Amino acid sequence: MAQSNLRNYSSNHYTNIDEKDIADVIQLLFENANSTAYQNKEPWRIAYQNSIPLLLVSLKGEDKKLYEIILKKMGTEIATFEKSHPDFAAWMWGRVLFAAINMGNDEYTIIRAATKIENCLNRAGRNAVSAWGFGYLARYYTYGATAALSSINKKYHFCISKALEITESLPTKTPDDISSALWSYVMMLHASATHHDDRMTFNQISEKMKAITKTSSIDDALEKIPSSDFKKWAMSTTYVSTAMMGGDEKICTHEKLNMMLMHSKHEIEVAYKKLSSLHLDAKSTAVDLKNFENLNRDLGNSALAFLYAAYAECCLTQKPQNKSAHAQSINALMADTHGNTAAAAAATTATAPPKNPIFKKKIK
Question: How many Cβ atoms sit within 10 Å of the Cβ of residue 149?
């Protein structure tokens, strides 16, 4: 998703957090995902649990070794259900795709994951998960210099249209139905924000989010997502998308971001302590798996919300004068982060990204 590294994020005294603490969160979630609590459990469940630390480690952008370990684990698990559950596999490959884009220097995985998504979607049914798959694939077609090509642009719009078509064909009777549709829209919003000046799609999706929830604002629409369905991650992802489009005071403000960062930091602390106390139990297959998964979800949700909100703050602070300059500054941020000096040099014509560290104080 965001091409970034936390060392480059802007910060304030409310949200400072030690870098090691985020590394500890990632390590704990990874160990839990591969603990004996999941011994003899379904591969899809293991892949899903691994996808959260994979996204987190890619956002942090420094621990390539752990990234590659989780990546290999994800590929092994997804391979076991690709044929039987192509829609779920497309979703998981979508998370792999986002993680690879976050890392900024893993072209092989980016192309492999996109190919896997396409192959899976060709066999998938029409459901919310396949709509998410098209949302992820749309993001792929906004990635890199080739996104400006006419043929690639057509594929991007095809993916958006398929995601919309499927989403609008699904029932909206229950809160879970609404939440699934909103997540589809959140991913389409992000794809449109990373595409070349696609404000028309961005505005169209924004209106659909309000319409399906019968609300008058994006904030109110996102409130319809249950907390158990990664609400805060959805909100901070939307903040990133809005900031990348140049900002919108009705959706994304420094005040909202500061509140998200402050609350997420607190929730990371609380969830980490609770989950750490259960960590020893995870070595036993007798662990209460539902409670264990809920705590992992809460920690993952808070950490993702924190990192995405931090990146949104970075984008909003830069606020370049035009779209191309904004894209260049993001590329510079990514390139500088991951040691891609050639790409960094090519992108230095843009506004330099902020260098203030976000990590300062340890979680107690």
Answer: 11
Torsion region of 269: left, alpha or beta (phi above 0 gives left; psi -120 to 50 gives alpha): alpha
Q: For residue 320, how many other CB atoms are within 10 A of its CB?
A: 16
Name the DSSP letter for residue 354: P
Which residue in 114, 333, 184 sits closest to 244, CA to CA?
A: 333
- Taking CB atoms within 8 Å and a gap of at least 24, the contacts of 272-280 are 272/21, 272/24, 272/25, 272/28, 272/299, 272/363, 274/298, 275/28, 275/32, 275/299, 276/28, 279/28, 279/31, 279/32
> In this structure, what are the phi and psi dihedrals at residue 252, rounded to the nearest 5 degrees?
-125, 115
Any idea which of 95-109, 259-273, 281-295, 300-314 has the lowest mean pLDDT? 281-295
Here the tokens at position 271 are 């969830």
Per DSSP, the three-state class of 248 is: strand
SS percent in the chain: helix, strand, coil, step 5: 70, 0, 25
Q: Max CA-CA distance within the chain?
A: 57
Q: With 80 as the cut, is the pLDDT of residue 270 above it? A: yes
pTM, full prediction:
0.83
What single-letter amino acid sits at 235? M
Token duo for residue 17: 């957090």
Burial of 166 (0-12, 13-18, 19+ CB in 10 A): buried
Q: Are 337 and 32 in contact (CB under 8 A)?
A: no
* 29: its two tokens: 């979630």
Percent of the chain with pLDDT over 70: 79
Per-residue pLDDT, averaged over 4-10, amounts to: 42
Residue 290 has pLDDT above 90, yes or no: no
Residue corresponding to tokens 């505005």? 203
pLDDT reported for residue 279? 60
Q: How many CB atoms lie within 10 A of CB 279?
A: 15
Residue 328's CB is within 10 A of a number of other CB atoms, namely 18
Residue 148: CB partners within 8 Å, gap ≥ 6?
196
